[in-house]
Amino acid sequence: MGNTAVEKDIYSKIDEAIGQFHFEGKLIDKTPYGSGHINDTFLLRFSLPDGSVKKQILQRVNRIVFKNPVEVMENIQGVTTFLRKKIIENGGDPDRETLNLRPAKDGKCYYLDADGDYWRSFGFIEGATCYDQVEKEEHFYQSAVAFGNFQCLLAEYPASALHETIAGFHDTASRFETFCQAVKDDVCGRAAGVKDEIRFVMEHQEIAHVFGDLQKAGKLPLRVTHNDTKLNNIMLDDQTGKAICVIDLDTVMPGLAMNDFGDSIRFGASTAAEDEKDLSKVSCSMELFELYAKGFLEGCAGSLTDLEVSLLPMGAKVMTYECGMRFLTDYLQGDTYFKIHRENHNLDRCRTQFKLVADMEEKWYIMEDIIKKAGS
Ligand code: ADP
Ligand code: GN1
Ligand code: MG
């Protein structure tokens, strides 16, 4: 797999990058960290003169995904500075409740190496964990409150100051066009082996147009949204179980409230992992859906319109369909976007998403009913 070559390459460059930041203490080790699909993330551990150990996060920004990393960094710097101020005003702990960029030696918030790779560092958030699946229901509820609150906090952030870091990120109709092109091009000769999955996308293509049509009709407000609200993009306090910090701010951009809700459901309300091979284990839990809806609406604190609230189930379906289609597109294009760790990884991921879409369709009236009750 292509990933192995990337790992070797990165190890030869990481020390140079570390040397470009002001880190306290002596480096003990550097380890690949977390389960993100996009950036190369490392945990750095430093020993301090008093014998304690200090951790930092170092990331190499994915240049295939982010065509303009400086704009990504400007967004993150703007948003984290804004959040830090709000957290202080509200009496919170700004070192744990928002990401904190560590400046590089030249004062910038990133280091650009000779190969054109961008590196950045964040203070490690101690005593908190990111989960790949819901282990305690309370965690999911707390993550919902935090993602809703994140959107609410950023309501005052000037949307015009944000760069669009990935063009048309949640433009599902344009994702559908890209998918059709990938099927036509079939650069890896994989299309013939995934006829059922391709048929699923085609038979459900109306899902790709729902939000775009409503936006064109001027019915949906654009808000500053996170756009990648999966459970492992939030840190939960190990002691209290509360969601303390929303992370992975690369895609904070103007977007739709329903998409932030829906992406969390797609990932967290599933009864199985995103890459589960045994599809009989995959379904959308209505208990978790209800819990998340309650927490998200609480976090949004009445800021959503009635139409937005009523479209929350559709947000779940749109995000799940879109994500499955993106995994399938990447599989057809040769796995160049999402990191993969085994053969057919993107195909396995795509299949869980389509299983979830089908399950949501069966449970549609239950989902609508839950939202009606939670929103009233
Ligand atoms: P990706 O875009 O690849 O998903 P993330 O920014 O989400 O990258 O980081 C990957 C993982 O690294 C997270 O899921 C989390 O486990 C861990 N992580 C990132 N930032 C921090 C931080 N400041 N403190 C502790 N862990 C972090
Ligand atoms: C990626 O970066 P990460 O792993 O948190 C992706 C999301 C997908 C998700 C699927 C920038 O999220 O859009 O929904 O994988 N992020 C980007 O798990 O494309
Ligand atoms: Mg992430």
Major β-sheet annotation: 6 strands, antiparallel
Topology order in helix (H) and strand (E) letters: HEEEHEEEEHHHHEEEEHHHHHH
> Unreliable runs, pLDDT <50, ≥5 residues?
1-5
Rg, Å, rounded: 21 Å
Structural class: alpha+beta
Mean pLDDT: 96
Strand content: 5-15%
Categorize the overall geometry: globular
Share of helical residues: 40-55%
Number of helices: 12
Hetero compounds: adenosine-5'-diphosphate, 2-acetamido-2-deoxy-1-O-phosphono-alpha-D-glucopyranose, magnesium ion
Summary keywords:
alpha+beta, single chain, binds 2-acetamido-2-deoxy-1-O-phosphono-alpha-D-glucopyranose, binds adenosine-5'-diphosphate, 376 residues, three-stranded antiparallel beta sheet
Detailed description of the structure:
Helices cover 45% and strands 13% of the residues. The chain has 376 residues and is of the alpha+beta class. A hairpin with a 7-residue loop joins strand 1 (26-32) and strand 2 (40-47). The longest helix is centred in the C-terminal third of the chain and has 22 residues, at 312-333. The protein is globular. Bound molecules: adenosine-5'-diphosphate (ADP), 2-acetamido-2-deoxy-1-O-phosphono-alpha-D-glucopyranose and magnesium ion (MG). Residues 33-34, 36-39, 41, 57, 99, 122, 124-125, 130, 232-233, 247-248, 250 line the site of adenosine-5'-diphosphate.
